[in-house]
Amino acid sequence: MGLPGQMTPATSAGSAYHPAPVFSPIPPQLYPFPSSIDRLDFSDDQLITPVSPACSSTAAVGESCLTLSAKVGLSPILVSASEAGLREIPCMVTLTGTNRSIDEIERERTGTDLVCVIDVSGSMSGGKLEMAKHSLSFIVDNLCAKDRVALVVFDDVAHRLCPLTICDEVGRSSIQHTISTIHTNGSTNIESGLQLGLKVLQDRRVVNNLSALFLLSDGRDTCGNDPLARCSKTLSAGQRQGGGVLVHTFGFGNDHDSMLMSALAEEGGGGFQYVEQVEGIAGAFATSFGGVVSIVAREVEVRITANEGEEVPCAVSRLYVRTGLDYFSLPFITANEHKDLIFLLTLPSPALSSPITISPVSLQLTYKDVAGVQQRQETKLTLSLHPAAEEIRENIEEDVYINWYRVKGAEALSAAEEIANAGRLDEARDGLGKILAEMDAAVVQTAPLVRQMRADIEESLSRLRDMQSYHSGGSAHMSSLSSNHYYQYCSPHTQVYSTMQQTTYTIRSTATVPPNYSSFTVPAHPSQASLPERHASPRFGPPQFVPPGLSEPSTGLPAMPAPKFGPPAMPPAGLPKFGPPTMPPAGLPKFGPPPFAVQAPKFGVPLTPVPQPAGERSASPEEEQPQEETS
Fold it and tell me: What is the 3-class SS of 257-318, one letter each residue?
């Protein structure tokens, strides 16, 4: 059968290897960055046969995984030859993913290769890391034998804790155990974690249907100059070699590098989530996970071309895109999701004697379904023009104008962030004030999405009151809002874009969070200079359990030893599994072994206290003290 941690040949169909039961993971190797990372070989992924998704078979018989539609913001449009100049009309392209229930998604979805890259630097200690571990465990529990997961952690160097492992029952057990052994140490080198995570995907022998990378950090890259340029270069190279990897980033707390995390998510085609509180990590991970496992279309592009020979010539004056391209480009669309893309159409003022209908532009949609099959659709935008002399009114297409203000608000947030980064807070506030005034005068000002956008802009204004407030979460808040509103991504601050499956996974994840997580107090991060003076803990494996009174070196007493690897050390009976340790229960000695024997653990079974007979129990220090005689 092989030693623990080795792969043995599989006997079932669908994969060439299955892992042997792993309950004591092989100690991870250290991967210094960047001198030796290019020489690493991660072609030890467990072999798997990608599952053909159901969507490709339905597309073959005429059912598409994605539908295309377009509409203009006014209907009809009144024109008059007496009006000079051109008129700009907002228009909208809507892409809708096929409707599916959560059962259909889980039953028919394609397989995914997921690499989770987690910051384990010293500032992640306490509730932050425990919640991140809970979130990882939730994701692993909801994967199946057509998925694979690899774990990468980083502090000042990066570590791969396990290869791409098939998430069958045995594989999930192995991964869960590995997750339980993670704890914090060191400084923050985001670039090393990102590069190692991408390297795992580049070197794999089998490429699954979908590939994704989750990157979580609560700090700033402290291991080199210009981390944005370095990480962007790393991601660009990784995407060229690995191909089609979706990168979702999670910035935790108010001191992370929001510009870096947002830029990596945008370049990687994923979402950036700003997680302000510890308890928000679970929902953020579950939201992104719900999106990844329900993707129905990738490499989505919409091109707009003018139709020749129309009676009234029109032209596209602007596309609301951040890529600088002359077409819309989306990395993916999920089931039950719709994306609304806005562009402006310029219209002259011709002399009309009667109403006419024109189709000035055509829209071509191309995408790949999850089986990699290229799909194509086409439609035309139709305008109804009426002479202005007729007694008829223009009707507003509210959803077009609502989404127009959505992207304008997102652009205003992005511009304000850029100005604030240059230290010009007054100018940034003025820019946001102008878009608020424009929204207040809009005919769709009472629409829920416009009201949500307005509230988010007002919240951003409050975070621009001074530089301290801006740099203490304000920048991250604005960056997340701008990106997620623009691309209609769900996040803790933009739940309005949540799909059915994202809502379902978020509810499931947060429902399993232990109640005492909400009361975590995250300890202050010691300075880098003081780190060597604190208790030495293994980089991986369970944290050492230090009884009360032994938490500082000044006591002169050594901490209880803990194994570097193996099952997590259980605290004595009466102490909570999570949160800061409390004083020992009455009757237990403060130091020394507890007054009970410990049953030898079986694989996967936590250590269980077994009380000894009363006559064999050793007396506590309090019991050894002589009792005073009472009269």
Answer: CHHHHHHHHHHCEEEEEEECCCCHHHHHHHHHHHHHCCEEEEEEEEEEEECCCCCCCCEEEE
